[in-house]
């Protein structure tokens, strides 16, 4: 298990004894966020400079996750990358 990012929890939900018994290795570290903000922000705010808008083959609401997972797992034609978006309204049909 590897974690990177910004730690946001005051409580520690990890049960270390359980992880110890399962022989899990944990690697964690703080992302150096401030250093990269000037370079990253244009990638997040500009109009798709990396060309990733067409990366996902399907964009669905989270409510359709079970159906999407089943189609992806069954390797149905055209289901390469599925993006689940909170708040997206399900399309009819």
Description:
The protein has 93 residues and is of the alpha/beta class. It has one domain (2-85). It has helices at 16-21, 33-45, 65-73; strands at residues 2-5, 27-30, 58-61, 82-85. Strand 1, helix 1 (16-21) and strand 2 form a beta-alpha-beta unit. The longest helix is centred in the middle third of the chain and has 13 residues, at 33-45. The protein starts with a strand and ends in an 8-residue tail after the last strand.
- Secondary structure tally, helices: 3
Q: Mind describing the biggest β-sheet? A: 2 strands, parallel
Structural class: alpha/beta
Number of strands: 4
Give the helix level as a range of percent. 25-40%
Number of domains: 1
Tell me the overall shape. extended
Beta-strand content bin: 15-25%
Mean pLDDT equals 81
N/C terminus separation: 39 Å
What order do the helices and strands follow? EHEHEHE
Model regions low in confidence, pLDDT < 50 over at least 5 residues: none
Biggest sheet strand line-up: 1-2
**What value does the Rg take, in angstroms?**
19 Å
Short overview:
The protein has 93 residues and is an alpha/beta fold.
Pick out its properties.
alpha/beta; 17% strand; 4 strands
